[in-house]
Design a protein that fits this description.
Layout: E1 3-10, H1 15-28, E2 33-39, E3 47-54, E4 67-72, H2 75-81, E5 85-94, H3 101-104, H4 112-122, E6 125-129, H5 131-138, H6 144-155, H7 162-172, H8 178-190
Parallel strand pairs: 1-4, 4-5, 5-6
Antiparallel strand pairs: 1-3, 2-3
C-alpha cells in the first residue's frame, strides 16, 4: 500500500509537527517514508507545506494530480495545493482562516468563505473542519494539528492506524499533553459531523 499526502498551512499552526507524527506512525508500521518540506516560517504566518509518500517511492515530491489526501490547516492554503490532488482524492481542511499579511494591509482581499465554497465545488471527498467549535469542545485551541489528523484518519485515506498515531504522540509530546491530544485525535472518530 502506498499513500501520497500533502500537508499545508501557515507557520505556527503545527503543520510540520503533524507531518512528523504521521511519518513516525508510518515507520512504526514498517512503512517506507519519504518527506519534503517547504517552510515559510521566516515570519510567523508564512506558507508551509509538506509532501509525504508512504510506501515505495523514488522521490519525496508528489507530482500534480498524485496526492491521495490533502490535509489543509487553512482554507486558502488548501486551495493553493489542490492541483496536487488526484481524481477521487480526499481533502480535510480547517475552515479557520489565517489572513495573509497582504490582505491585512489592504493590498489584496481574502474571503475564507469563498475558499470553502470553491473546495465544495472542486472536491468530491471533502471534510471541512469547524476548528473553533471542535477546539472549544476539546478545551485547547492549540490542538488543531491533531484534530485534523483525526479527521483525516476518519476518511480512511491517511494510511496509518489510530494506535500508531497515539504511540507517535506519546513518543513526541510530553505526558501532560497526551490526554488532550488523544481527545483531539478521536474527535472525528466519535462524532463524524464534528
Amino acid at each position: 500500500m502506498s499513500k501520497n499526502i500533502v500537508f499545508c498551512g501557515v507557520g505556527g499552526q503545527g503543520t510540520v509537527l503533524a507531518s512528523k507524527l504521521v511519518a513516525k506512525a508510518a515507520m512504526m508500521e514498517q512503512m517506507h517514508v519519504r518527506t519534503a518540506e517547504t517552510i515559510g516560517m521566516a515570519q510567523r504566518g508564512g506558507s508551509v507545506f509538506s509532501h509525504m509518500r508512504l510506501g515505495e517511492a523514488d522521490s519525496p515530491l508528489i507530482g500534480k494530480g498524485e496526492a491521495d489526501l490533502i490535509i489543509g490547516f487553512e482554507p486558502g492554503e488548501t486551495v493553493r495545493q489542490l492541483p496536487y490532488l488526484k481524481k477521487g482524492g480526499a481533502v480535510v481542511s480547517s475552515l479557520k482562516p489565517v489572513m495573509p499579511v497582504s490582505a491585512m494591509i489592504g493590498q489584496s482581499s481574502y474571503d475564507a468563505g469563498q475558499m470553502a465554497e470553491y473546495l465544495k465545488k472542486q472536491v468530491e471527498h471533502l471534510v471541512l473542519v469547524d476548528a473553533d467549535k471542535a477546539l472549544a469542545e476539546i478545551g485547547n485551541p492549540k490542538a488543531l494539528n491533531v484534530l485534523l489528523l483525526g479527521a483525516a484518519l476518519a476518511t480512511g485515506e491517511i494510511g496509518v492506524s489510530r494506535e500508531s498515531l497515539v504511540e507517535a504522540l506519546h513518543e513526541t509530546l510530553k505526558q501532560p499533553l497526551w490526554e488532550m491530544n488523544e481527545k483531539a485525535l478521536s474527535y472525528y472518530l466519535s462524532s463524524p459531523e464534528g
